Amino acid sequence: MPFNPATDIGDLSGKVIFVTGGTSGIGKAAVLALAAHHPSEIYFTGRNTQAGRDVTALLKSSAPSVQTHFIECDLASPRQTIREAIVAGFTAKRLDILIANAGIMATPAALTKEGFEIQFGTNYLGHAVLVRVLREQLLRTAQQGSDTRLVVVSSFGHTLAPPSGIDFDALRTANAGTTWQRYGQSKLADIYLAKSFARHFPQVTSVSVHPGLVRTQLSNGVESSWLTPVFKLLRWTPLYQSADKGAWNVLWAATAPKDQIKNGMYYEPVGKEPGKAAKGSGQSETVKDEALAERLWQWTEGELSNVA
Questions:
Q1: Given phi > 0 = left and psi -120 to 50 = alpha, else beta, which region is 107?
Q2: Are the CB atoms for 233 and 168 separated by under 8 Å?
Q3: Does a structural domain hold residue 2?
Q4: Mind listing the pLDDT tens digit for each residue in 221-231?
Q5: Residues 119, 123, 124, 126, Cα dihedral to 10°
């Protein structure tokens, strides 16, 4: 689908936007692109305070009318730490667009401070905490008649998930399978997050997106594995895009007319259903497993029951 953020994103006046991982890569590109269309406020998170200040300075220069707020937040942190950061930092009365973008990829084996596999804990569970904390704001804004969106950044890498899709028995194990299987599991979980939110709260348009192959710090940091040489070769081919262009599918999902979007869908760049993109890569059959998606939703609701 032809898409140009400069001309195809409509006026965002009055809208409040929240982007995780907004200090670099796709997240930063999305924040800057959205700010150009005059939203009321943009909140963005990151782990690096100086990077947050730098993006804030860019926004004040390029979009001085937009209220900008940086929230320092590491999604690998304990759930209550994430909750406290969001509750303290998010002061708006509404939330129109939530973009769950932050993440890590193919990192060495490790656990979060709460004992979860680091990629699952960061890419999925940290965002699940965030969505839970901001859920009432999203639902309240939708109730007021806003075209409210949840956009979860996944990846074609979800196809690398283990055969079971989500290995519940290994979620507290650092080194189950390969680093790419663990990454794939986290990205499959992200797809399920959007699908399940759409099913349980259909008043919010919730989708997941594959940004394409993007040249960012995320792709710079992959650890040594059998796939790493492939990525290193691809990074210098036309298949790899800049962060600005990598943000296009995210921006499309966040701002396209509601009648162009199917609630709960996983989209390839730009705005393409799986397998229909010119350079499409499709989705795994596991994505269609509604029972597994619901099992993960119920597991997550139970795990995060102490997060209000």
A1: beta
A2: no
A3: no
A4: 454 455 556 55
A5: 100
